[in-house]
């Protein structure tokens, strides 16, 4: 399996798995941001994971833009939006897919 195909599979999983938990919650509670953050930080373990993912998302967005500009990767806004709307589970493999596609094009030209 080519890396870009693996990254696309990870993108699909990175979208479907988190939203399989989020959509039912929204259907039950609506877009109640107060309740969302109370439940997100309900205990030390959930707060641990929340802080880890939030920091990872900030670092990923910085990495997407610095590495993406360095390698001249196109469509850098896509993984940034994916990270903000879904999370690192979508944004990171999407960036890796775009990066790999650019690397494959560069290799094919050489």
Describe the structure in brief.
By secondary structure, the protein is mostly helical. The chain has helices at residues 3-29, 33-40, 44-71, 77-85, 88-109.
Q: What's the rounded overall pLDDT mean?
A: 96
Structural class: mainly alpha
Low-confidence stretches: none
Distance between the termini: 22 Å
Number of separate helices: 5
Rg from alpha-carbon coordinates: 16 Å
Largest sheet descriptor: none
Number of strands: 0
Strand content: under 5%
Helix content: over 70%
Order of helices and strands: HHHHH
Based on CA inertia axes, which overall geometry fits?
A: elongated
What does this structure look like?
The chain is mainly α. The chain has helices at 3-29, 33-40, 44-71, 77-85, 88-109.
List keywords for this structure.
110 residues; mainly alpha; 5 helices; 0% strand
Helix-strand layout with pairing:
Layout: H1 3-29, H2 33-40, H3 44-71, H4 77-85, H5 88-109
Helix pairs in contact: 1-5, 3-4, 3-5, 4-5
